[in-house]
Amino acid sequence: MLKELREEVFRANIELNDRGVVIYTWGNVSAIDREKGLVVIKPSGVPYETMTADDMVVVDLDNNVVWGSKKPSSDTKTHTTLYKAFPQIGGVVHTHSRHAVAWAQARREIPCLGTTQADYCAGPVPCTKPLTEEQVNRDYETTTGEAIVERFEGLDPAAVPMVLVAGHGPFAWGKDADDAVHNAVVLEEVAHMATITATITNPIPPLEQYVLDYHYERKHGKNAWYGQK
Amino acid sequence: MLKELREEVFRANIELNDRGVVIYTWGNVSAIDREKGLVVIKPSGVPYETMTADDMVVVDLDNNVVWGSKKPSSDTKTHTTLYKAFPQIGGVVHTHSRHAVAWAQARREIPCLGTTQADYCAGPVPCTKPLTEEQVNRDYETTTGEAIVERFEGLDPAAVPMVLVAGHGPFAWGKDADDAVHNAVVLEEVAHMATITATITNPIPPLEQYVLDYHYERKHGKNAWYGQK
Amino acid sequence: MLKELREEVFRANIELNDRGVVIYTWGNVSAIDREKGLVVIKPSGVPYETMTADDMVVVDLDNNVVWGSKKPSSDTKTHTTLYKAFPQIGGVVHTHSRHAVAWAQARREIPCLGTTQADYCAGPVPCTKPLTEEQVNRDYETTTGEAIVERFEGLDPAAVPMVLVAGHGPFAWGKDADDAVHNAVVLEEVAHMATITATITNPIPPLEQYVLDYHYERKHGKNAWYGQK
Amino acid sequence: MLKELREEVFRANIELNDRGVVIYTWGNVSAIDREKGLVVIKPSGVPYETMTADDMVVVDLDNNVVWGSKKPSSDTKTHTTLYKAFPQIGGVVHTHSRHAVAWAQARREIPCLGTTQADYCAGPVPCTKPLTEEQVNRDYETTTGEAIVERFEGLDPAAVPMVLVAGHGPFAWGKDADDAVHNAVVLEEVAHMATITATITNPIPPLEQYVLDYHYERKHGKNAWYGQK
């Protein structure tokens, strides 16, 4: 079942580890088959070193396991909540990458300070509101997804493919699993750069909106001309 | 004698080095056989590159060498003091990992700022009081252990498996040598994240207690459901 | 066409990646054949892992592709603007290396704080003025080059082979592609060192001009005697 | 001539590179044969990748080349000045390691903040006075050595085997080339730790003198008992 997508999600999980944004089992990647309404996701707590494509788990959008012998990631409900709310996206990633987590712990959005961020994200990286005690105790993983969705009111998840969950860490997404991993790695890098900028200047000068727009459009706009396309 | 445990402790010492939390001989791992009351520990000052399982040293809880041709780690008395005071633990690790040492040098506990720490430690990482001159000159390695034990009055060492010794560095422990190494690596990572958070915001916002409790219980509580268990 | 120069530029792009100053496709190296007035440059958006020397693109100084099947780097016009304004230089590099970007985001020049920088750069690393909205929308990549050239009024690009573009990132150059890569790596390193110095002291004490002069002259002056020359 | 010592110095230079405290040719190691009064030192500007033991250069204490086809390190006079002033030492290292350079650029000594430093250095890592213009223009490399020697009035170079040259970078030494490299790596590590501590607390609390003494004596005192000796 969904053998090709399971291979893709497996390789994307390995890539996440290879890129240095994950230690131990601190991350997970999923992807969705929109036609079938099924999500392939990393199993919970299985080390990257011994993980295989057959360890991937297939769940439906109500979080029922429909294929696989392992338990799915403990963050599965957050992933499915995002897939249901954001029909544009095909892959989701969660990590505890160091600098992104640090900004999430600071409960600060990452302002757009330069073209590195503007090439991927049409503005600041948003940060959710902290969950209430009621939200945590009702259905934590679902309400985490809901807090992200609430924060994206008025934002386009295709243009801002990353978020910080206050006190927790980053989620990123994209058109597929690979693209989501790419965005998670970029998020860690821009969080690192913003940390250094904050070290050497205060207040931090935001990038001019017209430069932000130019860079984002150059890569993602209607007439994008970056790369070999 | 204790061949299996010696292999375990040897591999855990190598893992400590491979995870990048140790340079030269700046760390040591031990494990205890509770039935026999014997501790296996790394030898003093032997490079990781040439160390073998046969270099491990077996001592009793009074610090007498009962097996092995090498001298045990200079920190042996600290390890045995912890094993005597904390019957729940099976392995102990000491490192000079960079960020954990920096917080120990600052003589600051690491507040629990996010779920990364909450997944492993049910609150802040405590920091001991500085040793007095009398303590240092009486029996330094033993009094170091005693300062840790004193700091844990009212704390559960199973729920808080890590500590900073003021002006010195971190100790971590766990149910066995591997688990202790895992906690030592996590401690370095959360110390690194807390450093970055402190760089970008002041004061540092602590994690809500109900999130801390939820995350800790999800992994370690009676009804823990993280991983494949 | 220009087979040898294409090999050189290809290898210099790989070196840029190997030195850790680039992730994904976030950098580009070019070199010029001054006699022919032709520039060899990296293609746009091709991953380093699969890139070959035959993917390099040859353009003239008016940015017309004269050889190659790929599209040239999106930053090509910045490179050619620099070649036209600075006849002394033979290679140009652009990266998004972390610390250099952070200073560019802070819109601060990097003062010369020590001999490490003085060995390569006869003074501070300059930072351009931000581009105006008109400049961005007219011809962004060309005006980026022009902003660099404007900033170098009164400066010798052979003696100051590196610059920060405000809100964007670093460019470096040299007598050929290899030399430009070397200077890009040095720029990242001195930006990193300056960041740390700014962390531990304020204000930052600049290097005495006579030490700066001595070190720069020792390596680059008429009577330079560093190395085996 | 001095084949064994040349091998030692060559391997120590490679080790310096392998330990990550040097990029390009930014470091040099030497060792002395005290009976013959001859010093073996790295050649100037030769890349580590292609360097061999036969590239090492032998000089006398007046800086005359007595063996070898290469030019000696541009810092040779600093090394020989140290050997003449400090008869206890057998090896000298100079690097531009990142954090040590940053403290040198800040012109701050590194206070002894913890036992990591106390295990190697009986107090703060001293920082020289800046050189005067006269010193720089008279005989820069010799006066650099003299500034170090002046700073060590009242200090024991065997107990404090490392120094920062203001605005420049670190020198370290030891009983032989290997020991000097070890101390240079330790210096970078303690500089890194002190930087982090300075980030999270202000003022920085120095280590109690009695802990410093205990740790230093444990490894280096008359009754040292660390390691397998």
Using the 3D structure, state the CATH architecture of chain A.
3-Layer(aba) Sandwich
Uncertain segments of chain A: none
Oligomer: homotetramer
CATH class membership of chain A:
Alpha Beta
Cofactor (chains A, B, C, D): Zn(2+)
Keywords (chains A, B, C, D): Carbohydrate metabolism, Isomerase, Metal-binding, Zinc
Organism (chains A, B, C, D): Cohaesibacter marisflavi
Enzyme class (chains A, B, C, D): isomerase
Describe this structure in words.
The structure is a homotetramer of 229-residue chains. Helices cover 41% and strands 14% of the residues of chain A. The model of chain A has no long low-confidence stretch (mean pLDDT 96). The two termini of chain A are 33 Å apart. The first copy, chain A, has one domain: 3-Layer(aba) Sandwich (L-fuculose-1-phosphate Aldolase). Chain A is an alpha+beta fold and 229 residues long. The first copy, chain A, has seven helices and seven strands; from the N terminus they run H-E-E-E-E-H-E-H-H-H-E-E-H-H. In chain A, strands 4-3-2-1-5-7-6 form a seven-stranded antiparallel beta sheet, with helices on both faces. In chain A, helix 1 (3-18) runs parallel beside helix 6, helix 2 (76-85) packs parallel to helix 5 (133-151) and helix 3 (98-106) packs across helix 6 (177-200). In chain A, a hairpin with a 3-residue loop joins strand 6 and strand 7. The A-B interface holds A 23-26, 43-46, 70-71, 74, 96, 98-99, 101-108, 130-131, 133, 136-137, 140, 167-169, 194-195, 198-199 and B 113-116, 182, 185-186, 189, 192-194, 196-197, 199-201, 204-205, 207-208, 210-211, 214, 218, 225-228. Chains A, B, C, D: It comes from Cohaesibacter marisflavi. Chains A, B, C, D: Keywords: Carbohydrate metabolism, Isomerase, Metal-binding, Zinc.
